[in-house]
Amino acid sequence: LKLAKTLKDCPEIEIAEAFFHSQKGDKSTALSILAGIDLPLSRTAALMIVAYHESPQEVVDWLKTADIAATDCDADGKHFLLTCYFELALWDAAIECLGAVTDDDFRETPTLHQSIALTHLIRAVPRELRSLVLNQLPLELASFPLAADAAGLQSRKTAHHYFVKAAQIAGELSCPCTATISDEYALWLELRDPDTAASGRQRLEVKLRDPGSALRFVYFGREFGIKLDIEAIECEIKRQVALNGGMTADASLARFALAFTQKTPEDVANYIAQYRADLVEHLNKKSMQLLEVEMLLQAGLPERANECLDVLVQEGLSEVEESRLRQIIAETKEANPVAARKVKFKKTNSLSALASLVDELEVREEWEDLCEYGEILFDRTHALHDAKRLANALAKRLKSERLVDFLRANTTILAQSKYLQMLYCWALY
Questions:
Q1: Is-above-0.85 flag for pTM?
Q2: Are 292 and 308 in contact (CB under 8 A)?
Q3: How far apart are CA 221 and CA 399, in angstroms?
Q4: Burial of residue 93, with CB atoms counted within 10 A of its CB: 0-12 exposed, 13-18 middle, 19 or more buried
Q5: Distances from the Cα of 265 to the Cαs of 80, 259, 292, in angstroms?
Q6: How far is CA 227 from CA 44, 271, 311, 329, in A?
Q7: Which pLDDT tens digit goes with each residue over 124-156?
Q8: Of 104, 194, 309, 347, whose CB neighbour count within 10 A is largest?
Q9: In a domain, 281, yes or no
């Protein structure tokens, strides 16, 4: 740094000096140096220095106090800012950043392609579920609620565009992990888009035939209805374990997918328990245990579910998650679980409680209540699956006028489903 100062005066030297002071714990001097440099680069440096010393929330508070917006930062700063917003679940702030990113920013900071893709994607995801898609794909690839109205479809298509671009550029820059993850998001969105589902399915089938990627995409195949050769998959898992001296990430994913090929929820839970060591080596242990609890509950085995939950609590389950699962276990013992789920929804107003109530109403074919609560759920998700469920309930209760009004108000969704089109015709008849 001393030598650089003797050669030439430039902002980069002063910014480097600010980082030097920050590293030594002197945040005030570092920010003081940067305050005298009126450049996007210096504002990004200040943002990073504050983040080094403070929490993400304090970073956001500092930005407001300093009156610095995304447009005031360079490309790296915009990416850094989006990361902070994601961590704090400040979805609206993240979405506002979309207008601040330019083509030059993408060239300067290629990782922005993935950040921007995620920002467009969350616009099509219910608020309560947005954090689930930030770091990995959801477990329910085929049924995870994605908005299917005009705005939702556009957000999904735009997100797909940026994921494809992110995968391409990551490949060119020799970042195979980033390329693979971005490609998986892109494929997921292709398979969920009625305009690209056929081509997405063809692309998935190619990946399943390729020995280099087959295991990783077994779960995709199971979710999207592609017939799987279970015996061949088991053999390939064993082969990869032998070749690598242990479980690989792809083998764990394939093993996880095979759990859902079991015949009953109890069989799924038993399979997870049998292969727990293989699964948790590369997959989240808590997620596996939570899934085991939920499968046991679906199987009507609350005592075993309680035993699994006790283990989870001992290993550090949050109070919120424990309370949710204890409530579900209690509901399985109720003579009338619908009443208990109505109480829970009215108390919490949470999307998970509402979805659980609607699921139970559908199983019990309580169409009148499903007309009411199904509409509330659709208003929150705008998902095709929830539209079908509501339309079916309206048809079952012969509420033809209301069904016609609903489908006429959601013509983009109507165009995506032959089943909805059939219900529409019958309602008009």
A1: yes
A2: yes
A3: 38
A4: middle
A5: 42, 10, 9
A6: 50, 20, 36, 34
A7: 999 999 999 998 899 899 999 999 999 999 999
A8: 309
A9: yes
